[in-house]
Amino acid sequence: MGNADYECPHRVAIPPSKPLFKALQSSFKETLFPDDPFRQFKNQPLAKKFMLGLQYFVPILEWAPRYTFEFFKADLIAGITIASLAVPQGISYANLANLPPILGLYSSFVPPLVYAMLGSSRDLAVGTVAVASLLISSLLGKEVSPYENPTLYLHLAFTATFFAGIFQASLGILRLGFIVDFLSHATILGFMGGAATVVCLQQLKGILGLIHFTHETDIVSVMRAVFGQKHQWRWESAVLGCCFLSFLLLTKYFSKRKPTFFWINAMAPLTSVILGSLLVFLTHAEKHGVQVIGHLKKGINPLSVSELAFGSPYLSSAIKTGIITGIIGLAEGVAVGRSFATFKNYHIDGNKEMIAFGMMNIAGSCTSCYLTAGPFSRTAVNFNAGCKTAVSNIVMATAVMITLLFLTPLFHYTPLVVLSSIIIAAMLGIIDYEAAIHLWNIDKFDFVVCMGAYTGVVFFSVEVGLVVAVTLSLLRVLLFVARPRTFALGNIPNSMAYRSIDQYPIANNVPGVLILQIDAPIYFANSNYLRERIQRWIYEEEEKLKSSGQTSLQYIILDLSAVGSIDTSGISMLEEVKKNSDSKGLKLVLANPRSEVIKKLDKSKFIESIGQEWIYLTVAEAVAACNFMLHSCKPNPAAVELQGRENMV
Amino acid sequence: MGNADYECPHRVAIPPSKPLFKALQSSFKETLFPDDPFRQFKNQPLAKKFMLGLQYFVPILEWAPRYTFEFFKADLIAGITIASLAVPQGISYANLANLPPILGLYSSFVPPLVYAMLGSSRDLAVGTVAVASLLISSLLGKEVSPYENPTLYLHLAFTATFFAGIFQASLGILRLGFIVDFLSHATILGFMGGAATVVCLQQLKGILGLIHFTHETDIVSVMRAVFGQKHQWRWESAVLGCCFLSFLLLTKYFSKRKPTFFWINAMAPLTSVILGSLLVFLTHAEKHGVQVIGHLKKGINPLSVSELAFGSPYLSSAIKTGIITGIIGLAEGVAVGRSFATFKNYHIDGNKEMIAFGMMNIAGSCTSCYLTAGPFSRTAVNFNAGCKTAVSNIVMATAVMITLLFLTPLFHYTPLVVLSSIIIAAMLGIIDYEAAIHLWNIDKFDFVVCMGAYTGVVFFSVEVGLVVAVTLSLLRVLLFVARPRTFALGNIPNSMAYRSIDQYPIANNVPGVLILQIDAPIYFANSNYLRERIQRWIYEEEEKLKSSGQTSLQYIILDLSAVGSIDTSGISMLEEVKKNSDSKGLKLVLANPRSEVIKKLDKSKFIESIGQEWIYLTVAEAVAACNFMLHSCKPNPAAVELQGRENMV
Fold first, then answer.
1. pLDDT at A296
2. Residues A39, A349: Cα–Cα separation, whole Å
3. Which chain A positions have a beta carbon within 8 Å of B535's beta carbon?
């Protein structure tokens, strides 16, 4: 009891350990219910609870009673605007997925209706998305050729959509939405950029009027396919494509400069389709190498429940496709919904959104739709058009329904090259190189993750890009824990604060005392590292003191403020550090161990071995105690112990 | 500039950002060279540098000049003791690996010599290990039957050993030794216990004298194989086995009670082998169902370089087996070496050890040895026998060499059942249930990891156990980052310290101010969670204040002391939190951002948006500033802003 004379001003509290069940319960709640969704249910009568529960799962019940005619006027305009975008985009993306074009229209009818009832975003416009379409064609296309066996391919696409829905809904119901968080912003940025690049490259087929094309999506294969059949290029198609692409890009540029004219940009795709169709119809260009959509069946979505291919030998690839497209759809959709909610300052519940996405895809897979999500472009148009609630989705669905019932024959002469131009124009907006530069400026590692995803997608495949980016992101987290920073602290003049000497060069060393701060939980992954690093700190400090002839080192204070947790390997590490410093005649002192840490140190008897009186609430108090011991006549208790031991030997 | 009147006592330093190359260099050094191995090379002449470098890679050059006769006497005794253990253990483990028994002796000859030159541990006794032997038989046995094609199996075992050596040495040379750290103590404990259980179960074959047995290692298959052929059980074998097992366990128990008689335990296996062989020789029990080793070739290790099967179609399984056994061997060996080094208070360099292990396995694979590592049992005997340096390994190797040259015929009549008893007796010591109970008491999660590894190995397979345990361990790290704890802080009476109210119930709330501490780096994996959780803190605090009629909430102080790092997703999260609190009329204040964090906040202009004057060095100073603002006549600047905005609307 070396410092019995020194009165410690504050004791470090060792909270009583909770009973196992309670501890489990509270950590379960913190992990899965951080937003405490049940808080509004507390102290309510049963009927009210039921009503609130229903409103929780079907948000339309919550906001419909407050719906006004003013809102409807705004939603009507927004809905018609996005419908004019949805029809050509739907056909284009279905084409990209190698599915019948009509599926793009079907997919803009049923899913938006389901989302309007269950979704919590007021701005999200539901529809098919380019990246998921590309993924379906590349993942399913590997197994079943869409040209040789279109029916099986179609059925597998429905099945994949079904499993995507099941997966999305289960994530939401099991409150595992945080899995989506592991796709960091940088990952999504790089992945989307890469996918958009790949999608643009794929459109060279349509623009150049090629008939045969590669199934691969990487840039090398695509370029080989394009330049390997130069003699097949159709100049008529290429000229048409360039004209429409320029038109679309010009309108986009114009709308960006003058946001009030957003509708020009929104209407441009439909205008292109109408102009293109008229042109083909009048010039009979379809007989001169310009491919057209051809016959589209009239009528709304036929049921497709019986077409879900649960018994197919390709079921596993359908499930895989469903899970990958489902998680990508969710990641984009939830991120889009969340950003627009932040604009308008309302709250979106990620888990609820996942259930809504899942239900709309399950319903979609039974009604001849393929995977839908919340595309950014359509949502941005919806937002700019002034939508107020999800009713704009209902308006869009109605407009699409009218198209399906009466207007499909009009698309017979629509040239595929126009659809390709529409896709390219939309995709060029997704390649957000400015955001990548921003990442480079702020966080180099995020930039590396982003570029990893991008190059993985462009040069290898969509899955490779995703795996590379997620692995890099996780590696960063693991590296943070595996190689925590340690800092030597010094006293900030005129204060009781002790801060890193690196960050605050004005901070003063305390003679004879080495204060170290550890910056991460002490886990198995870093305990060996920390032991070596602490030894090196001590060695370096001793060398420095020796060469400058100052007081020799007597105390090591470990500031555990930033150590959130410890495991058994970490405790062994501390025990070894204590043993090592004892053998060198140094006294180990702990400052500010947190409740998790002190509980475990107590249970493992480490506190007994170090002595409760050598654990302080703050670094300042630890330093004061050390100074008191250093300057009182008594020698350092650890040194005395050591001497005693040496005498015994 | 709300608090322009208030003079901030200390500024938070924003360290200048390092040039990219320098930053990369320093983080590279911290990651791969935390022990700064080059420090002794600094300011030395070239010749000295060369000598030091040679000593670094061949430690025997460093300690051999200081070797004394006293040391040799101790090492001689220890070496002979471990040799008497090495011979029967070597034969037993080779049997377990389904390899020719003579390989066990070969493996105790060359590798110990290599290790003695390159290794840095003074206590480690080199030899084959049970778990790696089991792994070889289960991983290679899946591909090639050791009974039907013993030559190919043997060659694959050499090849696997070669790749294990290459893998171990490269880990060391590339300084990637920290990969082994990801096998936490709990993982190894559970894994070793499970493997020992499985090994014991396998010995039922030898004990019961069964001829046919399953290739599976899981408990269900083994039990089915044992009880499925009850009529094949040989009572002679079983009786012999039980007798020897009791003898071995009794000597072990006795030696444990009286550590000075450690040699009784060490000699027991050899005694059993001699007694068993004599018994069989005298009673001709080999003709009554007791299987014996049979003919062992005389002579030292033949070369096996030409037998490395690089061209084999099974090369990939050999590589896989090599990597798995190599990493398991390393994990056990380095841990064993490290623990004994801690006892004797000297330092072991993990990366250097890996190179030594790798070289000894490469050399071994060329001289008819299979995988060797540092078995715990043999090392403990070595330590107890009073070894001083790695010379005890040289003594052991010499003794084994003499056995190989002259004594192999003596093992002709050694019954297999004695070998099984030796393995069981060794394995029972490895099942460390007390350590598992210790884990349960201190850290429940570590216990779960341990049991995951154990049940995975026992009920499924060795690989499943390993994968389960590593996944669980990594999941824990990820969960720590994905769900960081947040705490409300209060003032500890009579101090400037602010601590978690959970841990220190005496801590006092500051009226009108919510102080939150975040306990982990703010990364993509937790930024959504933190946003929700901070919102909930604010909501709950407001509810509490409303119901108690106190001052309404005006300030939120985020204590970033424990936030070691931030990425772009984290910065977006802070921006959203600021936006949300602005919209509620709350002012966001930061306390003690660390150098990594403040640099990025500065680059991303977040500091500009929050105002440099709202960032404080300590929580106490932030609280003082908030209190000054609250009690001066001026209203809260954020509230003023908000009012202004509302007036504008």
1. 84
2. 14
3. 35, 347
Give the distance from residue B252's alpha carbon to the nearest chain A alpha carbon, in angstroms.
27
Distance CA A600, CA A575 (A): 13
Calculate helix-pair angle for A391-402, A110-118, nearest 10 degrees.
170
- Structure confidence by residue, pLDDT tens digits, A497-506: 899 988 888 8
How open is the CA angle B318-B322-B324, to the nearest 5 degrees? 120
If pLDDT is split at 50, 70 and 90, which confidence band does B2 have? very low
CB–CB of B342/A579 below 8 Å?
yes
* ipTM of the prediction: 0.84
Residues B197 and B174: their CA atoms lie apart, in Å, by 35
Question: With an 8 Å Cβ cutoff, are B492 and A350 in contact?
Answer: no
Contact of B497 with chain A, judged by CB distance below 8 Å, is answered with yes
Q: What is the CATH number of the domain that holds A509?
A: 3.30.750.24
* pLDDT of B477 over the 60 cut: yes
Determine the pLDDT at residue B116.
Answer: 94
Q: What is the C-alpha separation between A135 and A252, in angstroms, rounded? A: 26
Domain that holds residue A488: 483-648
Q: Cα separation of A149 and A314, whole Å?
A: 13
Across the interface, whether the CB atoms of A31 and B479 are under 8 A apart is answered yes
**Same domain flag for B327 and B346:** yes
Entry pTM: 0.82
Q: How many residues does chain B have?
A: 649
- Residue B59 lies inside a defined structural domain of this protein: no
Evaluate whether residue A439 is within a structural domain: yes
Q: Answer yes or no: do B401 and B499 share one domain.
A: no
Instruction: Check whether residue A115 and residue A168 sit in a common domain.
Output: yes
Q: Check whether B96 has a pLDDT greater than 80.
A: yes
Nearest CA in chain A to B341: A576
Cβ neighbors of B101 (< 8 A, separation 6 or more) are B91, B94, B95, B293, B296, B411
> Among residues B478, B505, B540, which one ends one of the domains?
B478
Quick check: is B372 in a domain?
A: yes
| Mean pLDDT, all residues of chain B | 86
Q: A566 φ, ψ to 5°?
A: -150, 150
Using a CB–CB cutoff of 8 Å, tell me whether B523 touches chain A. Answer: yes
**Contacting B residues, span 33-52, partner chain A, CB-CB under 8 Å:** 34-36
Which residues of chain B neighbour A521 with C-beta distances below 8 Å?
480, 520
Predicted confidence at residue A9, as pLDDT, reads 66
* B621 Cβ contact list (under 8 Å, min separation 6): B8, B9, B10, B591
The pLDDT value recorded for residue B639 is: 46
Q: What is the distance, to the nearest Å, from the Cα of residue B295 to the centroid of all Cα atoms in its chain?
A: 40
Contacts of B443 in chain A (CB under 8 A): 567-568, 600
CB–CB contact B446 A474 (8 Å): no
On whether residue B563 sits in a domain, the answer given is yes
**Token pair in block for residue B633:** 């006549």
Burial class (CB in 10 A: 0-12, 13-18, 19+), A191: buried
- Residue count of chain A, please give it: 649
The four Cα atoms A484, A490, A492, A493 give a dihedral, to 10 degrees, of -170
Contact B182/A at CB under 8 A: yes
**What backbone torsions phi and psi does residue B275 show, to the nearest 5 degrees?**
-60, -45
Domain count, chain B: 2
Residue A1: predicted pLDDT = 39
Write phi, then psi, for B475 (nearest 5 degrees).
-60, -40
Cα–Cα distance for residue pair B532/A36, rounded to 1 Å: 9
Beta strands in A440-530 (DSSP E): 486-491, 498-500, 513-518
pLDDT at position A412 over 60: yes
Q: Is the CB of A437 inside 8 Å of chain B's CB atoms?
A: no
Rounded to a whole number of angstroms, the distance from the CA of A428 to the nearest CA of chain B is: 23
The confidence band for A14, taking pLDDT boundaries of 50, 70 and 90, is: confident
